[in-house]
Design a protein that fits this description.
single chain; 2 domains; 8-stranded mixed sheet; about 15% strand; alpha/beta; Rossmann fold
Length: about 270
C-alpha cells in the first residue's frame, strides 16, 4: 500500500505523453499516485500505447475529456502548441483546478491570458535527467496559487527527482544552468572520450571510464555536499597529474568560457520568452 501524501485522492490529468510527460507519469505511479487517478491524452497513439504498457493509467479520448474531472492539470506539451491546447481545454477545466505548465519559456502571465480567466497556475522548468528519475526542476507560483498548491507541485516534481521554488524572474537563469546544463556535462564527457581515444585508448574503454567517473563524481558531490573547490583540492596533489591538467584549464580560461556560455544561454532564454 502506498503511503498517504498530499497527492492522495487527487485526480491528475497529463496533457502530452512525450518524453517529459512519460517520465512524470512513471514517477508518479512508482512513488505517489494510484495509476487509475491519472488520465493522459496525446494525439500520438504510439506514445499513449508505450506509456500504457508500463503504467496502467487511464487513456482519455481528447484533451477536454482528459482535464474535465481533474484536480490537477499538467501541461506537458511543446511551447509552440501551448496556446492551441489551452484554447481547447479552457472551458473544460474546473474553476478550482491547479494548472502546472512545463512548456519551456512561456511566462505565467501569457498562460493566464491564454486561459482568459483567473486560475491557480505553476510554471515549471524541468530538465532531461527527469527521464531517469534524477531530474532537477525549478518552479514558480502564479498569483492565485497557494501554499497548498506549492506542496502539491513539490510532491509531483519530487516523484522524478528534486525541486526548488524560485521567483519567476530567476527561471531564465535556471534554464541556463540546469535546463541546458546536462548538455554541458555531456559535451565535457564527449571531449574526454575523444582525448583518450586520440591518445591510444579503445573507444569502449574510454567511454566506460568517463561514464563511471562522471557517475561517481556526481555521487560524491551529492553525498558530501562539499564545495566543488574543496573536492578538487582533495583530488589534486601538488606536482601531480591532476594539477597538470587543471593548470591547462586555468591557462585556457575554462572558468571564463563557462561563465560566458551560461550567460549566453540565459540571454537566449530571455529572447525566446519575448
Amino acid at each position: 500500500m502506498k503511503a498517504k501524501s498530499v497527492l492522495t485522492g487527487l485526480k491528475i490529468a497529463v496533457v502530452g505523453a512525450g518524453n517529459m510527460g512519460h517520465a512524470l507519469v512513471r514517477g508518479l505511479v512508482e512513488k505517489s499516485v494510484y495509476a487509475q487517478s491519472i488520465s493522459v491524452y496525446d494525439p500520438d497513439k504510439k506514445k499513449l500505447d508505450a506509456l500504457r504498457k508500463v503504467c496502467p493509467i487511464k487513456i482519455a479520448k481528447s484533451n477536454r475529456v482528459c482535464v474535465s474531472l481533474a484536480d490537477v492539470v499538467i501541461l506537458a506539451v511543446k511551447p509552440q502548441i501551448l496556446q492551441e491546447v489551452i484554447t481547447d481545454i479552457a472551458t473544460a477545466a474546473g474553476k478550482d483546478v491547479l494548472v502546472i505548465s512545463i512548456a519551456a519559456g512561456v511566462p505565467i502571465a501569457k498562460i493566464e491570458q491564454y486561459f482568459k480567466k483567473p486560475l491557480s497556475l505553476v510554471r515549471v522548468m524541468p530538465n532531461m535527467p527527469a527521464l531517469v528519475g534524477s531530474g532537477m526542476s525549478a518552479f514558480s507560483l502564479g498569483k492565485h496559487a497557494t501554499q497548498k498548491h506549492c506542496k502539491i507541485t513539490e510532491a509531483i516534481l519530487d516523484s522524478f527527482g528534486e525541486s526548488a521554488q524560485v521567483p519567476e524572474r530567476a527561471l531564465d537563469l535556471v534554464t541556463a544552468v540546469s535546463g541546458s546544463g546536462p548538455a554541458y556535462f555531456f559535451l565535457f564527457a564527449e571531449k574526454m572520450i575523444e582525448a583518450a581515444y586520440e591518445l591510444g585508448m579503445k573507444a569502449e574503454l574510454a567511454k566506460k571510464l568517463v561514464y563511471q567517473t562522471a557517475l561517481g563524481s556526481a555521487k560524491v558531490m551529492m553525498q558530501t555536499q562539499e564545495d566543488p573547490e574543496d573536492l578538487v583540492a582533495k583530488v589534486a596533489s601538488k606536482g601531480g597529474t591532476t594539477e597538470a591538467a587543471l593548470g591547462v584549464f586555468q591557462k585556457k580560461g575554462l572558468g571564463r568560457l563557462v561563465h560566458e556560455a551560461v550567460k549566453a544561454a540565459q540571454k537566449r532564454s530571455i529572447e525566446l520568452r519575448k
